[in-house]
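Session log. Operator J.P. requested a structure for one protein chain; no other inputs attached. Running the standard single-chain path with token output.
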Amino acid sequence: MGEKELKTALQHEGEAHARGFWDQAEAAVEQRRKEIETELEHLRDETGSSLQAEETALRNNLLFEARTRAMGDKLHAESAMALRLLEMADKVLGEMIGDSRQKLWHALHRELPEYPWTNIKVHPKDLAFAKRTFPSTAIDCVEAIGGGLIATAAEGTIRVDNSLSCRLLRAWPDLLPDLMKDLREQVDSDAASRNDTTG
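Structure written below.
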């Protein structure tokens, strides 16, 4: 084998080796590119899942906060409504007595125990009844007492409240749930009828 042939053979072998190395390098680069694409896809999926989880958590927190605030507002509104209903009931109760004031007076003052009362508080319309019933007792007129009386003795240490307002307060926990239920039904009915006419 001559020098020329040796050079040509070495050149061919070198080129084949170089092509082999080049093919291997290209294959390694292609393999790494695919690995990087796979890693990027996994990162996108993880990031998407993480963002979706964060979005869900944030939405749930906001919904919980909104529901909590709405519940607080509802409780506050219902509490204010209950107080307003009590005030209205107390006022209406006094107005409902009408011609029965004398009968009511007799029934309520008879429930008082026998005692040397020092002060009697009554509604102004019951003043004449109180003067006849308790002639030697100080009598004060209080407009807020719709009917009945409040009797005190022994410098205020003994007090009996037998007024309609006091009786209403005692009955109020039993009356309020039904009143609120009726009120809610009326509000829901009104809202439904408004939606029917506007929708």
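Operator note: The radius of gyration is 46 Å.
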